[in-house]
Amino acid sequence: MRTLNAVALAPGTRLGPYEVLTPLGAGGMGEVYRARDPRLGRDVAIKVLPPGIADNPRCVPLLDRRPGERRVPVRDISSGS
Hints:
Helices cover 11% and strands 33% of the residues. By secondary structure, it is mainly beta. The protein has a four-stranded antiparallel β-sheet with strand order 1-2-3-4, with no helix packed on it. The longest helix is centred in the C-terminal third of the chain and has 5 residues, at 60-64. The radius of gyration is 13 Å and the shape is globular.
C-alpha cells in the first residue's frame, strides 16, 4: 500500500475507540483502513487525511461532497501525535 506520510497504520493500532484491522487503499486524499468500532460491534472505514489536506480549508468542502459515502455526523479529529 502506498503511504502518504511514510508511516502506514499497523493492524491493532488504535485511533480513539477504533482498532485498525487492515489497510484498504491510499490516494491523494488520504489513507483508508478497515477498523472495528467496539461501541457499534461492527467494522467501519476510516479515512486518515494528511496534514496538507486536513489543515486546508479549501479541501475540507471537497470531502463533504463525495458521492456514495455513508457517514456518521461526528468526525474524530487527531493531530496524530
